[in-house]
Amino acid sequence: MEFETRFDELIARKTSEAATADLLPFATETDSAGDGFIAIGNAWSRRLFDGPFYVSPATASDVPSASLVFVRSRDGNTVAKNPSALGGGEADKHLIYEGLSRLIADAVLSGASTIRGSGLVFSIWRPELVGLRAALGLPRHPIQIVATLHGLSLDEGLIFNLPELRVMLITVGRGMDVMRTQLAARPWVTPIVMEAAQDLPDGFRRLRQLGVERISCIGGRTIAGQLIDAGLIQDVYLTTGTKSAGEPDTPFYKKPLKARLIVRKHGTGAESGVLFEHVRV
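Now predict its structure.
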């Protein structure tokens, strides 16, 4: 019951934080989406986001479509003990990061360093968006996907101890060996074992076979770079905050990103220095 109690407390806390957050609207600078995107949202989100939020159509290939979501500091750093220190603001957190970017996602994918030993569950918490996800016929919480090469302790992370959550682990043989005994006691956690670390496309094909058609990827930087290099990312949602913070020299991607700008918006009021960009890779 310990994990169930922690989950109930997390839901209550995250819902309260999201529901009471004072969200300032974004203002649109550029919108060149055209007809090649799916426009999502409701009257509440369109008012705050200054229009629809765009996602690429599901891919016609045998892998899920995938987006990457990051917030960075004013000087481009993405690693921080507390992501709010990067200055992305409340609207970015509750409307985009924990909202529209994963609204229609079947799953949220993170690296092991993001989830290890944590009490995190990656979901949507703002009531207006929770209701919209339900109206779309989607499960309350997305599938939780964790990528780990070396394995991790499943006794610690909250998501691995809640049978009501669907969880998938992308790993390789040595990682599977570390987790095999703990996985045997958790039939709700599905391992996806790749031949090697470079086989992410094969891992994604397995996810598609298991019914995952759309993934929101939230990092960290290592898995983000691997996904981009493997050609598995279609959309990048990048918020640049107002503060100089984070660990130095920690961009979300170390190489120039070949991408087309779809949307650029800026925050207003006290968050006027925040910049949101959606690019198509």
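The domain at 2-280 is CATH 3.40.430.10 (Dihydrofolate Reductase, subunit A).
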